[in-house]
Amino acid sequence: xxxxxxxxxxxxxxxxxxxxxxxxxxxxxxxxxxxxxxxxxxxxxxxxxxxxxxxxxxxxxxxxxxxxxxxxxxxxxxxxxxxxxxxxxxxxxxxxxxxxxxxxxxxxxxxxxxxxxxxxxxxxxxxxxxxxxxxxxxxxxxxxxxxxxxxxxxxxxxxxxxxxxxxxxxxxxxxxxxxxxxxxxxxxxxxxxxxxxxxxxxxxxxxxxxxxxxxxxxxxxxxxxxxxxxxxxxxxxxxxxxxxxxxxxxxxxxxxxxxxxxxxxxxxxxxxxxxxxxxxxxxxxxxxxxxxxxxxxxxxxxxxxxxxxxxxxxxxxxxxxxxxxxxxxxxxxxxxxxxxxxxxxxxxxxxxxxxxxxxxxxxxxxxxxxxxxxxxxxxxxxxxxxxxxxxxxxxxxx
Length: 398
Known about the structure:
It is a single chain. By secondary structure, the protein is α+β, with helices and mostly antiparallel strands. It has a single domain (16-45, 70-102, 176-397), classed as L-amino peptidase D-ALA esterase/amidase, CATH 3.60.70. It has helices at residues 19-22, 93-99, 114-128, 162-170, 239-252, 255-270, 287-295, 297-304, 350-370, 387-397; strands spanning 2-4, 46-53, 60-67, 75-86, 101-102, 106-110, 143-147, 189-190, 193-194, 196-207, 213-225, 274-281, 313-326, 374-375, 381-382. The strands form four sheets. It has a six-stranded mixed sheet. It has a five-stranded mixed sheet with strand order 1-2-3-6-7, with helices on one face. The longest helix is centred in the last third of the chain and has 21 residues, at 350-370. It starts with a strand and ends with a helix.
């Protein structure tokens, strides 16, 4: 078994690029992306992706690790969750719904690795806090989300271990998030093409509490593992229907292609898949506003072609670094004490809503555009989105 952050089990020669590189004139909403066009454009947010493979090609999985801020342990972020369709796991969600607070790392991985990821967050925290044996005196509910990669990855191997989580959280950076067959998205499938991890961001103009001009950032990361081919659209263009028709025609003349498509169709009929969306912003939003922000990821998902099919797990988490909420503090728990926070005026929130939807949409595109063809578990093959053909289609329609 091997792991890393630079090698993928892929095949195919077509160069991969993000959607804006492929289609530089395409308009995706009215807000400009951040300098990296990535979740890590939100100041303080750091990410790491790592892949895990086996020499026989049957293990293709990984871990995406996110720290919401450097001092996450003592300074919580306000957060909100929206479940578009609930056939998926996000641990710690009950506590976030109860308190509106995120004070945990976020890990995204495969469905069978939730336990290892949960333990790994605890092991990382014990190490980071310098805890000695028998001396844990703090409260933490780890946040772990998952999507199912069993078609491309041999889940019976339980390849993700707690040490992978520790390594990931110790290695987070503010670099642009790697995309495609990486991190927790390594073995994922999206609209019957190779899916995985994608990210994007938007800058929203506004004001600070003194009325001075100030820009705010919304960043999104997706782990995309959902969708039917004929539903896939780019900026409204029915790219998926066109490609699906061409694939059907190719299958008529190739038994191998026909059998591969039938096997994938059977798998997706059994369980469509899921998508996890993580949204970060430095705009000072309170928990209810962040829940509303998380709901807007559904708009971006719908633009690409997601319907939230049963039993898909479509769970979205939004958090804000705009306030620092003290936690793990010694206080008298029976003497009420206010804290001072900044809060966005609800009447001015529309730009953040639009930015979230647009960044979610582009994150899914980037996931598909950067993912590479993969041969995985039991020889299952998933083709990458054919970028040159996509470019031809988009130029014809646009």
